[in-house]
Amino acid sequence: MSIRENFSDADMDLWLNENRVTEIECLVPDLTGVARGKILPRAKFTKERGMRIPEAVLGMTVTGNYPTENVAYDRAISNTDRDMILRADPGSITTVPWAMDPTAQVIHDCYFADGTLVDYAPRSVLRRVLKLYADRGWKPVVGPELEFYLTEKNIDPDLPLKAPVGRSGRAETSRQVYSIDAVNEFDPLFEDIYDYCALMNLDVDTLIHETGAGQMGLNFQHGDALALADNVFYFKRTLREAALKHGMYATFMAKPMAGEPGSAMHIHQSVSDAVTGHNIFSAPDGSPSAIFKHYIGGLQRYTPAAMAIVAPYVNSYRRIVRHTAAPINIQWGMDNRTVGFRIPISGVEQRRVENRIIGADANPYLAMAVTLACGYLGMIDQLEPTPMIGGSAYDHSFELPQGLPQALEMLRSEDRLRAVLGERFIDVYTAIKELEHQEFMTVISPWEREHLLLHV
């Protein structure tokens, strides 16, 4: 469900009055997952529903640059720098608990002047995939698990990140996976996080310490894909703000520290009958259904081509290495964390697939859209999966792209994903990511200076 289910514009205005809101942060998630938009006084927000921002805001790299002389990009995005019309989703209205004055934040959808959704906006891409499910009488159910690192503040990007100092006055120097005491080192921060999430009506669940030094994980209650993408989007903002308040950084980089595991966004996913609510991954006798196997077959078939979306940066591929709690394969197995697609032990109505390949750095809207798209294609094409893996798959062959250029080439070439996600989205997205990689290649790394400067 949304943060405020079935909210109308009138309900939103009433809520703003009841909470004496004086300012509204009008947010649009861009292709990187960054919050763009405008901050308006309450009176201006009430008067000017349908505010405008330039279309090109959705066509920027993470560094704020635009592709030039890219035919596909120029064909997709107008060269007149035209406006998009933003319309608030009332169900996404919530507080900004760290603000000094009563402030609200609300997520907006992007529209063209003719009233159609901007098809390459992340929320629009996810809505497009969800409509394909709805047209067949299906409703996806997802449950994200988001990993992240807490670090010392780092104002010099040339210096490596370090684990933060906790209540004891010491930083972690050893692996503390699932340690309660290690989480309690940061109690003041997490008390604020839970308080903020309660005020925002974010339905978060379990907090754990992951394997890395200062690495944590948070589970979200399962539910509607669009609402959960909104929750992850809001949570990332919230965690970063709370961490700054406590003198540290929170990062969702896929691999922020050398020698430590990377951070993932595992997404549990199942599909229910929209009328009966029955989990279609289970047959009437309680056994796995044929469509369940087809869903897995779709994930296996199309995830390699989807990697540029679920592993969207150069840094993302530093996580996808052997024996680091990140899969390098597209195998599947029962309660097996070494494979790309894990089947948790569950009851008949809870039967689901956990996609373990997605990085924490992925845009939550696009990550959910593309993993659901892969499963959808498997179901409608009745794709059969490979045999289930019984043991460890860590030594299995690499079955995923090992870098962003290869991943982009595969995404561009996959016509079935292009049809499901939208041609203009693929053109805009790949152009932006190609430019980001070009920008990265202009930077000389410390490794190159250390090992090449005097030796080659």
TrEMBL record:
<dbReference type="InterPro" id="IPR027303">
    <property type="entry name" value="Gln_synth_gly_rich_site"/>
</dbReference>
<comment type="similarity">
    <text>Belongs to the glutamine synthetase family.</text>
</comment>
<feature type="domain" description="GS catalytic">
    <location>
        <begin position="122"/>
        <end position="456"/>
    </location>
</feature>
<protein>
    <submittedName>
        <fullName>Glutamine synthetase</fullName>
    </submittedName>
</protein>
<keyword id="KW-0436">Ligase</keyword>
<dbReference type="InterPro" id="IPR036651">
    <property type="entry name" value="Gln_synt_N_sf"/>
</dbReference>
<dbReference type="InterPro" id="IPR008146">
    <property type="entry name" value="Gln_synth_cat_dom"/>
</dbReference>
<dbReference type="InterPro" id="IPR014746">
    <property type="entry name" value="Gln_synth/guanido_kin_cat_dom"/>
</dbReference>
<dbReference type="Pfam" id="PF00120">
    <property type="entry name" value="Gln-synt_C"/>
</dbReference>
<keyword id="KW-0460">Magnesium</keyword>
